[in-house]
Amino acid sequence: MKILVEEVDSILAREAGKALPEKCETGKVEFVISDLWTQEVCIVSTLGRYGGFLRWFICPGCNQRVGKLYLPIGNHAFLCRHCYKLGYRAQFIRDCRKTSNNKEKTKRQNRLEILKQLQEMLKGRKRKTNRKEMI
Q: CA gyration radius for the chain?
């Protein structure tokens, strides 16, 4: 089972970007992960639709621009969810539903096949009627 995004520590670029000067478009932020580990992450900015800046991290693992970095238990670096192969709870639930729907479809298909086989078997037989012949 995948580790879920909701179960790990994370940090938003918007929050970390507050450490940069207001007019600064790019910069670096240092995270202290433990007594032994620190990590420096780049932050870049894009112009917002209604003015101001939108802050983004550059993921140290894949160099993609992301809004949030994650730190699963036992790891020593913040990376994006794609690098850690994290999933959302809703994705997991959707996958479970797909599997159960597929099982139900195969059950229905099996039932239909059995009915077709029965119909084929009964085609050649004469039908019994309870009607009495009228004279």
A: 30
Q: Are 64 and 105 part of one and the same domain?
A: no
CB distance 38 to 91 below 8 Å: no
Looking at the chain, the whole-number percentage of residues with pLDDT higher than 70 is: 80
- Asked if residue 133 belongs to a domain, the reply is no
Q: Is the pLDDT of residue 130 over 80?
A: no
Cα 8–Cα 10–Cα 15 angle in degrees, nearest 5: 165
Q: Is pLDDT of 129 > 70?
A: no
9, part of any domain: yes
Angle at 8 between CA 6 and CA 14, to 5 degrees: 80
Nearest alpha-carbon partner for 80 in 101, 103, 100, 57: 57
Instruction: Indicate whether this model's pTM tops 0.85.
Output: no
Determine how many CB atoms are found less than 10 A away from the CB of residue 29: 19
Q: Is there a domain that residue 61 lies in?
A: yes
Bridge partners, 30 (sequence order): 40
Residue 112 is assigned to a structural domain of this protein: yes
Residue-number span of the structural domain to which 101 is assigned: 89-121
Count the domains in the chain. 2
Output the pLDDT for position 98: 59
